[in-house]
Amino acid sequence: MTTETNAEEGTESTATPTRRSSAEAMASKQREISVSEFFTKNRHLLGFDNAAKALLTTVKEAVDNALDACEEAGILPTLEVEIAEVSDGRYRVRVEDNGPGIVKEQIPKIFAKLLYGSKFHRLRQSRGQQGIGISAAGMYGQLTTGRPVVVVSKIGKGRPAWRLEVRIDSRSNNPEVLNKDRDNTVVWEKDHGTSVEIELQGLYRSGRTSVDAYLEQTVVANPHLELTYKPPKGEAMHWPRVSDTLPPEAQEIKPHPHGVELGMVLKIMHEGGKRTVKETLMEEFSRVTGPVAEELCKRAGVDPKAHANRIHAETVEKMHEVMRASHAALPQQKRFASKIAKSDSTLREELMDEGTGFTPGLADLVLRGAGLEPTQKAKLTTPTQLDHVYDALHKSQVRILPPPATCVVPIGEDLVMEGLKRRFKGEFFASHTRPPAVYRGNPFVVEVGVAFGGELSKDSSADVLRFANRVPLLYQPRACAITEAVLKVDWKSYGMQQRKGELPVGPLAVFVHLASVWVPFTSEAKEAVAHYDDIVREVRLALMECGRKLGAWVKAQDAEKWQRERKSLFEKYINELAASIHAITGLPAEKVKEDFQSALPRHVRLPTTPSDTPPALAAGEAAENDDEGEGEGSGARDDGDDAESASGEHPAAPPAKSAKAPRAANAVRVDAPEDEDEGLYGSAFEDVTPGRVRAKDTRAAAAQKSFRWAEEEVERRRQTKAAAPAAAKKPAATTKKPAARKGGR
Amino acid sequence: MAKKTDKALTEERDKRTLEKIHKLAIEAVADVRAGKNPSLSIPVRSLSNVSFDTDKRVIRLGDATQQRSFFHYKQAKVFMQTFLVAEHCKKLIEEGATTSIRDLYYAAKHTIAGSKENTFDDQSESDPIIEDLEVSIDALREELHLRAENKGAMVGPMTIRDTGDTIDLRRMGSGGWSVPSIVEEGRIEFMKHEAQYVLFVEKGAIWARLNEDKYWDKHKCMLIHGGGMAARGIRRILRRMNDELKLPVYVVTDNDPWGFYIYSVIKQGSINLAYESMRMAVPSARFIGISSFDAEAYKFPSSVAIATNDEDKRRAEQILKYDWFQAKGWQSEIKQMLKAEKKYEIEALSSKGIRYISETYLPEKIKARAWLD
Prior knowledge:
- The complex is a heterodimer.
- The radius of gyration of chain A is 36 Å and the shape is globular.
- In chain A, the strands form 2 sheets. In chain A, strands 1, 2, 3, 4, 5, 6, 7, 8 and 9 form a 9-stranded mixed β-sheet that branches. In chain A, strands 10, 11, 12, 13, 14 and 15 form a 6-stranded mixed β-sheet that branches.
- Chain A contains 23 helices and 15 strands.
- Chain A is 40% helix and 13% strand.
- By secondary structure, chain A is α+β, with helices and mostly antiparallel strands.
- Chain B has helices at 2-33, 76-95, 101-108, 123-137, 204-212, 215-218, 232-244, 257-268, 277-280, 294-297, 310-321, 328-340, 356-367, and strands at 39-43, 50-53, 58-61, 65-69, 99-100, 146-147, 153-155, 158-162, 165-168, 177-178, 188-193, 197-201, 221-225, 249-252, 286-289, 306-307, 342-343.
- Chain B starts with a helix and ends in a 6-residue tail after the last helix.
- In chain B, helix 1 (2-33) runs antiparallel to helix 2, helix 2 crosses helix 3 (101-108) and helix 11 packs antiparallel against helix 12 (328-340).
- In chain B, a hairpin with a 2-residue loop joins strand 8 (158-162) and strand 9.
- By secondary structure, chain B is an alpha/beta fold.
- Chains A and B meet through helix 18, helix 19, helix 22 and helix 23 of A and helix 1, strand 4, helix 2 and helix 3 of B.
């Protein structure tokens, strides 16, 4: 019904439109819209859509800038973040760094001009990218409170410290300095650094998307950062540095042929000018050597010596095809074969659906190269034909080295672990850094860490910490490629609980860091990573690597837990049993107890670390805890064979000696079940029946041997205590009076 | 004079039992010192491990045993409990006292040090352990100085000595002499009697009816009931009367698979206590009724018949396959029940008159030797 009405209205309104304005009149209203004006109207794009988010974004932009500046200058960052509630709903954010400082002339432009910055024009990893952030924050403050941004900066010892009050003219996107006519030098005891102060309408709150959460996570991803945080309420927090090494400086790089866009290739060729195609390729792309350039030209049918700007657009397109092809991939042949066996699609469609990096053109090229029609039904493909397809793909590919890792700076496996330990009191930590990969020509590195157990919440979904170039991503987890990758992992196979399509549930925190020259965000607000297959795949692979380590540990833990349970059960009954045996035989209860207790290690398989210490502490306390006799040194060293097979599952496990206490969690190992009687998981395998007959015989023999001991012992006791034999002879006398009921305790 | 021998006998027996318990404990210690997992060998008490001895016509326990080990997650507690029970039995023997299995349960029950767990939570935990102990050290319950609750009653033309007291079973009033669970020589002795046979009835109500009519006096028989399934004391005293006094034993039960089974337990022994068959079974016991064919032979009104339910049928099919029900008479008896899909309680006879059972049914059946063997 609704649609009908709408349809009627629609026809009516378009029936006879009346002219409302003329081209001339309209022209008078048409003018350039300044970027600042545009963003004033679209502030949500920059992360200022509500008061709480505005406060966070302001802190975030200022911290990002400070960290970038310190790292670029080669200074270990020491930051101070202060948020003060000026009046209800009005906050003053101050972020101070020990960075290189900013020269006076640049201050207004950096803080009060949008799209001004040093990072936009380079292909290089940094936190800020577009040069919008900090000036947008300033503009937001200006809009909501009317207060300018106050910047204090000093570039070196003996130099003056400048204090400038700047604001942005939102119509022209030009900065204004409010105090330019006065003396704006101030005394600052710091040698160098910058302090930014922005007053804004905001909302301070706690939770997943709070400033506190953001700073905590920043600390995780930046072990070299020393941070002091003064929140509007409560006490100041301080995180000392855990690493004294700056992340290596990121190199600028050129686009990589893998997955570069056609437009970019066209542009590069066009700008190549009078250079040859070969030269242009070698100079403008990373990892393109002479032979690679020649191979690319050969396959594209281009003369390598031709002038770059002379070649036809179609030829460039062909060149682009060749570049794309070198990055394309198909699933494992077996899997692909079983997939297409049931398919109704054409081969071209299947290649594009199942493969990565395929365009229709590339699919056709590969299929034709295999002597097949792209429109052939996929299910009719014979195994031989499929071989040809894989061969053709292989032949169509030019081998190009992956982009150099130097352009992307991962945090590093060790520091990811340290960072996680700074934040979570877990029992197990693992991390993994993938080798560099490429999406759309942009190199990136994925690294992943997991924290598990301990004080992490057992009943909630896993905590997923997302980072892009060390910056925590707090908003829009569901829209993020990182979350997608976490969901795609089958956590159940690593001993976690997980419902299909949901986050795993359990005491688990997942850290994912995407380091890239250019992080593909879904929006300017830099809240979520866009869904590139290459990125999702890399994250998934890294997660799986950590997952395997986690799974092995959990399994070992379960086995260990089970063994501990058995041990305490036996221990509980040993006392009772010893008391009974003492009462029956007269053997000293303590001696019997000892005999049974010393038999425990034979029947309970626990790591040789002192048995009752939680694993996370085990190695750390191993040295002190020698009283058990078996606890000689750290468990990883004796029983060499066992330890080896198990730590194979824990590549992250450091050698026991160098381990700091909590690190030892990695070294917990699974005991190989040596003895047939008792498998790791116990009862079903305990004391298998076939052994019975033989066991009986050996038992009898053994009994005979040690029977003498026991008998002697009894004899000795009988001699010392005449009471026992006397009691044994008594009972007959009482048969007459069974009424005397003495039973019971 | 006899008392003295009895005393010596008991003393001898107690010494033997104590040795067995002692050996059990010493072996456990020896095992653990030899690096073995201390275990007890317990004969399996289930249908799979019993066989029907066609010569002796009793059910016998087979050789299959199960290991009960201490260092085994699921067996540790039972292992400990077994020794706890053994410990208390040892104390009983040494003190010359006998207690009920319930007393033993309470005596052995306490909280395990350092936990909130009890050694036993229920008597149903300790009872089977007593049986386990009996079979594993091959000692009878009374040898462990344990007894069950008295169950069942007996009257008849006989004088007995019960732990020194002389009891005239002709003068037991309406309640009869309650049969204790230990009726061994040395405790119960048969003295003067005029009985010619023993009549076992399944239910106390029927027994009371017959006692009221002084059936035992008229027919010179020992009248005994087991209040359902015959307990050890009942079975043992039946056996002793059969053995020592050469009295034939007749059995009257309901006409249903359970009634048949009660008879078979008296006659051949039970699966659970197969290890005691040799001293409890009465292989010559005869089944008087109620027979599946009685309904027709004695013209029961159809109103007294009860339709067999699924469980009855299942149980009937089951016992049909037992080795000790393979006699032709029994096969046709059970098959008749299955065919007619009817069962009868002993009380069905009352439809013919209140004294029909004592004045007609039983005398006629015994006289006509109309029993099943």
